[in-house]
Amino acid sequence: MKNTCDKAYLDYLETFITESRKENFIKILQNRTKHFAIAIEDVFQLHNTSAVMRTCEVFGIQELNVVEEKYGKRIDKEIALGAQKWVDVNRFATTTNCIDDLKAKGYRIIATTPHEESCMLDDFDISQPAAIFFGTEKMGLSEEVLERADGFLKIPMVGFTESLNISSSAAIVIQNITSRLRKSDIEWQLTEEEILEKRIDWTRKSIKDIDFITKKYLEQEV
Q1: Measured distance CA(136)–CA(154) in Å, rounded
Q2: Which of 35, 83, 117, 200 is close enough to 54 for a disulfide, judged by CB 3.0 to 4.6 Å?
Q3: Rg from Cα positions in the chain
Q4: Cα–Cα distance, 183 to 29 (Å, whole number)
């Protein structure tokens, strides 16, 4: 029986997109990673959520986790500039659920804070999978994140200003850790199964009337 999760389905879908688009998906997925995930907690300014999503996409982070315990809002598509099509956004109603999910997946929880005991960005150990948490613009991360964190991370600053906008902080951290990751011998790439899943997902998002086309595929004789 046919299903929509295998290579045969992908081969069928790819007849509806250009060869260059197909090759571009393959090329981009070679630089995607789930070794790191990003999590943002109750960000009030919606454009900052969208900006972090865009940064994840640009630097190859595949999963963004969004806690919407206080400010449940629709992601700003205009500012994300299409990034929501290519990044997996996991949305959580509570911080507890988000942390539990990430820990179950094997991630260390890393809180970004300016605390003295925090690890400097350039000294951060990239060898283990980690979920990097960023907090609200005014209040920072919640006590729950700080209490359940496996480690702390901060960006070195030498000016009078003691903090950065969340989108700026995320961009600096993500660029640093992904750049170092790609220069390492760590196995950071997506698995073959994950690549197949995303190729199907992205190809589906590129085709108009995808439900009709999928129905025709499933109705074909084996």
Answers
A1: 15
A2: 83
A3: 19
A4: 17
